[in-house]
Amino acid sequence: MNRTSGHTNRPIGGIRYIKKRRPDRKRQFRIIVLVSLTIIMAGMNWFPNNWIDQFPYNNDKETNQKQFVAVRNKFYDEKVVERFKSVDDLVAYVRRNSPDTGNELDMARYLNKILKRRFIHAYSVYTTRENWIAVLAGRFVWSDLCAKVIPNDILQGNVASCSQISIIFMEACSKLGISSRKVGFPGHYALETYANGDWFFFDADMKPDFNAINGHKSVNKILKNNEHYKLYANTPANSRRISEMFSKIHYGIPNQNPAPRAALFHVFTKGLSHWGWLAPLIGAIFLIFKKEKAGI
Which of these, 27, 42, 63, 116, has the minimum number of CB atoms within 10 Å of its CB? Predict the structure, then answer.
């Protein structure tokens, strides 16, 4: 008899036995994981817009908050929302319509007039379709991570907080050639612009009455003349709140982006949210191709 011993793929009794290749379980598992990750990451871009809101007071459930927001929103104009969807829109309009485009203070006043009518007071936050990674970071890490700080992203909607309006204001000032700096108060945020050798205070969110103190001036002059109570008398803020606001003032560095790290985070996560699913898809295709090649 023609028998051979040793390997099973040699003839035994005239019959050739072929050893079957065992499937690579680990490779199959990796492919399944990568395909699943691709589906999840791509699918997150199609979740409902209002899947999550990390700022519950946007709903104005408290009565005092309703009153406070109502006064801030009395200047709101939907027509202004549709007209200005980017910082460039604001800049172009100011340059065309400002009474004196050679006067930096006049341009800042005109810009302030527009922004007072542009927004409803509330935090502008990302939706899952815009940046789902920032939304999840806001949900599980820190709520402020999903609040928009990129000016053109904020301008896509009709709501903005005090800090967000100031960010847009400062960006527009930069493009208009006007120096500006943030002015931080306890629980509030505004800015000053520089013109004619001095700083001038603006607050397009709370909308104080500057006519009551004979026009815009610096925060230092307002405090020196004890005019801050008169300035904010038209707002729901009582004297105690006004005193608290002006008790501690922080000035930013002139012409500095007030939220550079948050802006960088949003640029990165927005790109990753929209296109990050390609990475696991490419990985899965690579493993599938490698598996098929190995089976030849």
Answer: 63
- Report d(CA 136, CA 195) in Å as an integer: 42
For residue 192, list its beta bridge partners: 181, 201
Contact (CB, 8 A) for 78 and 155: no
Reading the block at residue 220, the tokens are 């230092």
Give burial (CB, 10 Å; 0-12/13-18/19+) of 141.
Answer: exposed
Query: Residue 102: CB partners within 8 Å, gap ≥ 6?
Result: none
Query: Six-digit token pair at 288?
Result: 């599938």
Angle ∠(71,82,236) on CA atoms, nearest 5: 5
Contact predicate 190/183, CB 8 Å: yes
d(CA 136, CA 128): 8
CB atoms inside a 10 Å sphere around CB 188:
19
The pair of structure tokens assigned to 227 is 């005019």
pTM, two decimal places = 0.84
Is residue 253 within 8 A of residue 183, CB to CB? The reply is: no
Nearest to 275 by CA among 102, 131, 69, 127: 131
Backbone angles phi, psi at 80, to 5 degrees: -70, -35
List the Cα angle 82/236/54 in 5-degree steps.
60
* Residue with token string 């009153």: 67
